[in-house]
Write a structure and sequence with these properties.
It contains 34 helices and 20 strands. Helix 23 links the parallel strand 15 and strand 16. The two termini are about 25 Å apart. The protein is α/β, with parallel strands linked by helices. The protein is globular. The longest helix has 30 residues.
């Protein structure tokens, strides 16, 4: 493996980093040091680092163009990238040089890193997976490009008050973005309904670790064909003069509008066709630039659809091939299906996107015609396969019939792609047997599994440098690019000295988190307590309310005099603005925290924290400090999860159900190092078939009954008995995610956690076993599987070119 620091310097001679920072402060920021803010110094450092990164980026593009390589294309509505600076310093091998340069200038590198706004381009696991995949593709030297939307505002910034979650605008671009390069020469028109909008390319380099490869993330910003209607302006109608500009730019304003309203649905579908069409048009530009015909599209590009958001690509690629490049239907269809593949990320039927036919007709009439024709040809084939089975044909159809006819985007993706994959073994199995069973029966060879992974550079090297240093010393540095080397820890499991150092690293990570929470929220936590953590999107199926109920149970047990190990329970995550039940769960957690944290009887025994505005940068502080990772979703509901991987990889022990990637994590770290509870996916399905009701479970469980009664009495809502009534009514009368069926098993598993914690040596060994067993869950491995089994994309080494800027 190349050493990043020597690699970054071997081809290009730069001024010292401190000197470049001073130059950028003057020439780019127009500031003298005496007037510069901390943010000015951050930008100067970022630009100096980008100068070094640009050499790799330009060389990468030149290498790909010269070799006319087959390219992996990732279409995703989200990229939860996290801050760039620290990651680029690590991947370039410049971290120590940056520390020295900052010290020379009287600056603190960590404070400059904290100045970087987090790109507001994603919501949760889907977007973070896309970001990990981009970094892994570059690290593996795979020719690749990512496409998405340059949202001016992220989903929202979350503030937590006594009333619960409050949403405010996430203006992440307010002070600019030093990492991106605008490409106005690469702009494309997209017609949506009666209007045309222009997509303008903004490029960000995505650097690999220990290689010269820097791939491109190309994001589209929406603009109007004409920024100003002069006729209206001259007539004095100044609002109308800029109306089209404002309407066009709305497409790339905000990530995920509230689609409960019709206007939100229109905007969301418009966003999807906008970024997909711009991306496909850009691919045809690249194809033409390399002298290749439209019929070679599938030999040049392997296009991955990240969930159903880009599924309109099936119809748009057909439109471009038919209407713009004049191919016949059969040829165009062959090119389309050979080019596209689809990743499904959900087992929840309601999360499989559908759009009303009427809305499609208004916004995308030509695409609807194409979808009707795809459907007619597909059903003709299916009738031959399944004669006399109208129910099966109705399930297979791309159009859902009923009072309001809808286009089924998942069905369109499966029919239009040559491969469909799930993201964990259990998820892929359930897709084949349930969610997409009819398609899997029709085309069994089109379905496969690629278990998700996370990049060890962001989630270990950047977020947990103490652990990274210990691993380098004990097993060497090969693990940074090949996590299977974590197995080399097996020879140290019985070494008391190593275990002591392991726990010292973990204690230091906990101390950093304690400091952050004290600084940001004024709470002082006990780092010697169990850090019990559940940070992820707030949703009923993820069952944050199960963990909250257990906190209430623990509170009552402590109040009744039981002696339990000290515990700090940390929650974090955002609820969709229109998801009332999820927001009520947050409000319950806040109410519990208020009472527990002010009760003197809980001092040193129990603390509850909700960390606001969970993000990548906050995750970098939290994941290394986790003792107990809460992965407690209802079995059969979570596709994979990646937070479970990040925590276990950093040495956390998991309490969880057999859901998503938990199954594979448990297999690899060992059942004895995993706290298992809960009914299986098959048992949950049987409950639903037999007619599940929560009351029998509650009646035979006095512990949970007492917790429910305390909440209902208003103990955590300042005496308001009505506040949590919708949540309690849901749990006691319907309980769609089987909280009551699983809480008894969860309680027993938590008692096992308490017992293990009281044996520090045993806990240390279990922690090491989790890190050691998680080498499989690298996004490098995931991407290698995509490249070999689905994309047929080969790595190519990027070589430095001789140019006039080598001594810049």
């Amino acid at each position: 493996m190349a050493d990043p620091s020597s690699m970054s310097r071997s081809c290009f001679i730069h001024r010292p980093l401190a000197e470049d920072m001073q130059r950028h402060l003057f020439f780019s920021q127009a500031k003298a040091p005496s007037l510069a803010t901390r943010h000015d110094h951050y930008r100067s450092l970022a630009l100096a680092v980008r100068d070094r990164l640009l050499h790799n980026w330009v060389d990468t593009a030149e290498t790909y163009t010269r070799a006319q390589v087959r390219t992996a294309v990732y279409l995703s509505a989200e990229y939860l990238l996290g801050p760039h600076l620290d990651n680029n310093l690590v991947n370039l091998g410049l971290r120590q040089e940056a520390e020295d340069a900052c010290a020379q200038l009287g600056l603190d590198l960590e404070k400059l890193i904290d100045e970087e706004p987090e790109p507001g381009l994603g919501n949760g696991g889907l977007g973070r997976l896309a970001a990990c995949f981009q970094e892994s593709m570059a690290t593996l030297e795979l020719p690749a490009i990512g496409y998405g939307i340059r949202y001016e505002f992220g989903i929202f910034r979350q503030q937590i008050t006594s009333r619960g979650q409050q949403e405010i605008t996430d203006a992440w671009l307010a002070q600019g973005n030093p990492w991106e390069v605008i490409r106005p020469e690469w702009s494309y028109p997209v017609t949506i309904g009666q209007h045309t909008v222009i997509g303008v390319a903004y490029d960000t380099p995505i650097l690999g670790y220990g290689v010269r490869t820097a791939n491109t993330l190309r994001l589209w910003a929406a603009a109007a064909p004409e920024a100003l209607d002069f006729a209206s302006f001259n007539a004095g109608d100044y609002t109308k003069a800029v109306l089209h500009k404002m309407q066009s730019e709305t497409l790339s304003k905000v990530l995920y509008p509230n689609d409960e309203m019709e206007q939100g649905k229109r905007l969301r579908l418009s966003q999807q066709i906008f970024f997909v069409s711009c991306s496909l048009q850009d691919m045809f530009r690249i194809l033409k630039g390399q002298g290749l015909p439209a019929t070679a599209f599938h030999t040049k590009f392997a296009v991955q659809l990240n969930d159903t958001h880009p599924a309109i690509a099936v119809a748009e690629l057909m439109r471009l091939l038919l209407d713009e490049h004049h191919l016949d239907w059969e040829t165009a269809w062959g090119v389309t299906t050979a080019s596209l593949s689809y990743t499904n990320h959900t087992l929840l039927p309601e999360a499989l996107e559908t759009w009303g036919v009427e809305l499609f007709e208004q916004l995308l009439p030509r695409h609807l015609q194409i979808i009707y024709e795809i459907n007619a040809r597909f059903l003709r084939m299916a009738r031959i396969k399944y004669p006399g089975q109208p129910e099966k044909l109705a399930r297979l159809s791309l159009i859902q019939e009923g009072p309001q006819r809808k286009v089924r985007m998942a069905n369109l993706a499966v029919v239009g792609c040559h491969q469909t994959n799930g993201v964990a073994e259990l998820h892929s199995d359930l897709l084949r047997r349930h969610v997409l069973a009819d398609f899997a029966e029709l085309w069994p060879d089109r379905f496969t599994n690629v278990t998700n992974g996370v990049t060890p550079r962001r989630w270990m090297l950047v977020s947990n440098p103490g652990l990274a240093s210990l691993l380098d010393e004990v097993i060497g540095s090969q693990w940074r690019r090949d996590l299977t080397h974590l197995q080399d820890l097996s020879g140290h499991m019985e070494d008391p000295g190593f275990l002591a150092r392991w726990m010292q690293v973990r204690d230091a990570s906990k101390q950093r988190l304690v400091h952050h929470i004290h600084q940001s929220q004024g709470l002082l936590l006990d780092p010697a307590s169990i850090f019990d953590v559940q940070v992820k999107r707030i949703h009923e199926y993820k069952r944050q309310h199960l963990a909250a109920l257990h906190v209430v149970e623990r509170y009552l047990r402590l109040r009744n005099g039981e002696d339990l190990p000290p515990r700090t329970v940390i929650f974090g995550g955002k609820a969709a603005p229109g998801y009332a039940m999820a927001k009520l769960i947050i409000r319950l957690i806040i109410g519990i925290a208020e009472i527990v944290n002010m009760d003197p009887a809980m001092e040193g025994r129990l603390r509850v924290v909700f960390v606001p505005n969970f993000s990548v940068s906050l995750g970098q502080k939290i994941y290394p400090a986790v003792d107990l990772s809460e992965q407690i979703s209802t079995a059969g509901k979570e596709a994979s999860g990646t937070g479970n991987m990040k925590m276990a990889l950093n040495g956390a022990l998991t309490i969880g159900t057999l859901d998503g990637a938990n199954v594979e994590i448990r297999d690899r770290v060992g059942a004895e190092n995993f706290f298992l509870f809960g009914h299986t996916a098959e048992q949950v399905q049987e409950f639903d078939q037999m007619g599940y009701h929560p009351m029998p479970w509650i009646e035979k469980d006095p512990v949970v009954r007492a917790a429910i009664e305390l909440i209902g009495a208003g103990h955590f809502s300042e005496g308001d008995r009505d506040l949590f009534h919708p949540l309690l009514a849901n749990l006691t009368s319907h309980d769609p995610f089987k909280v009551m069926a699983d809480i008894g098993g969860y309680r027993l598993a938590q008692e096992q956690v308490d017992a293990c914690w009281q044996d520090p040596t045993r806990w240390a060994r279990m922690s090491v076993a989790n890190t050691m067993g998680c080498g499989f869950f690298s996004s490098d491995r995931s991407i290698q599987e995509y490249a070999e089994r689905i994309w047929n994309v080969q790595p190519i080494a990027v070589e430095a070119t001789t140019n006039a800027f080598q001594k810049a």
